[in-house]
Amino acid sequence: MVVAFVGLIVLGGSGFFVASTLEEHDTFCIACHTVPEVTYYNRAYIAIDNPGQRVTDLATAHYQLSQIHNKTPFACIDCHRGDASLGQRLSTLALGGRDALIYVLGKEDPTIEKTKTREGWLPNAACANCHADTLLTLKGLDNHFHTHLPQAAAALASGGTLKVADTTPQDKRADLLRVGLKTINTTLVCSDCHLAHKTVSAGATFFMDNTRRNEACVSCHQTAKEGPQNVNNLQ
After folding, report:
1. Could you give the CA distance from residue 195 to residue 117 in angstroms, rounded to a whole number?
2. Is 140 left (phi over 0), alpha (psi -120 to 50) or beta?
3. What DSSP element (H or E) covers 127?
4. What are the tens digits of pLDDT across the range 97-141?
5. I need a labelling partner for 136 at 20 to 30 A (CA). Which of 39, 101, 148, 196 fits?
6. At 28, is the secondary structure helix, strand, or coil?
7. Which of 74, 88, 106, 85 is nearest to 196 (CA)?
């Protein structure tokens, strides 16, 4: 009985290691995630081969920027494993098993321009994990839409450090640090404004759809019960 129990632990650990290793490779991901993930894959690797070409979606931009700045090559799993903690890695593998079943049953969602997924909390955890510096950089009004998020408070509680933007005048720096974070209890997440796999227009800033962004702003202000309370009051 003990031997069988130990054997199950070894097999489980080996399976976890093998699956985690395979998920580091985009070619493994698109073997099952055929629609619409092959489209995302092609966008990304075309961009890598053409670094001077303008990209129109946020996920592809990560691939291109990683190459331009000589960073570790980007992969799907960098967003889809969340913050890489053990609990979120286990959640990722569980979702992978579910998705494999969806593939076998032929029940994939072929929609290319997705704006929301049921497991969106995982990539949003990855956003906050990698971009904690953005969440914790005080610029007053110019960055309040990041520093007022609960994710900013969580990043600070996890060991992050508040800093003031270099462009901030000296006479305002101390005040910003003294006030620190103002946290609004909003349910907004990164992808409510920044769309990972949706093509955006050439003039879009930080891959945001202005209509969705304005709705997100108003949602947060309504929760805070101050500032613009409807989209008509936004520019």
Report:
1. 12
2. left
3. helix 121-130
4. 888 888 888 888 888 888 887 788 999 999 999 999 999 999 999
5. 196
6. helix
7. 74
